Amino acid sequence: MAGSEAVQRATALIEQRLAQEEENEKLHGTAHQKLPMDMLVLENEKHQGAQSLALQKVKGQERVRKTSLDLRREIIDVGGIHNLIELRKKRKQKKREALVAPQEPPAEPEETTGPVDEETFLKASVEGKMKVIEKFLAGGGSPDACDQFRRTALHRASLEGHMEILEKLLDSGATVDFQDRLDCTAMHWACRGGHLEVVKLLQSRGADSNMRDKEGDSALHDAVRLNRYKIIKLLLLHGADMMTKNLAGKTPTDLVQLWQADTRSALEHPEAGSEQNGLEGAAGSRPATPQPVPAQ
Question: In residue terms, where are the ANK repeats (predicted)?
Fold first, then answer.
């Protein structure tokens, strides 16, 4: 028998043996289980007499031993017990590797074939697929293309923090203060996502930090509500109005709870610095207010 055929045969035998071992383990387990009072076997005992569970167990073990012995002989015939040991080691190693192997996202194809429609373009802005964005724009697509909620690629990329895509969109003429159906701008979405660098980019492209959504909230209201105190400082340093009231009559300062010390300090003492990361929040702060999920 050829070497590869022998390995295949041995592997098949091992699979059978493992199945028999599992059956044996189950058999051991049932020996300690208490039979429920309504089992059919109890009804049958009235007419046929009780069957010894111990005897059934012995018979089952004898079948397993006989099958295992036959398998062992066959494995030795196709290459020796060494095959059994090595193949079982490989089997266990493959299982370990499968458990620890990182699940890497599929790489973006080098070239996107066919035309890119608006839905694919908007989805790419969330997933960070730059080549799809470039192809859509190169084909004459509008950087302000939006979905039924008037959410653009700029809104989506601002929430996700995809800086390269944002720069490409803005360089291609995307409207920096484009408002979605709830009147939210990219600045609102950047504050919700907690991306300080995105806020800086939007400010450098002329974004209005004081634009308000349909609830009267400015980007500063959102940043305060989510305890993004470094973003709060940045907004205040660039002219955000801390006295703007929303439709509920609340200013950003009103939204700050007494125990949100970092945020309150930022509002009262907006000094420069500490602008490396917008994802901060006090360790004991309350859970973030649920955010709208961009349509995809």
Answer: 149-181, 182-214, 215-247
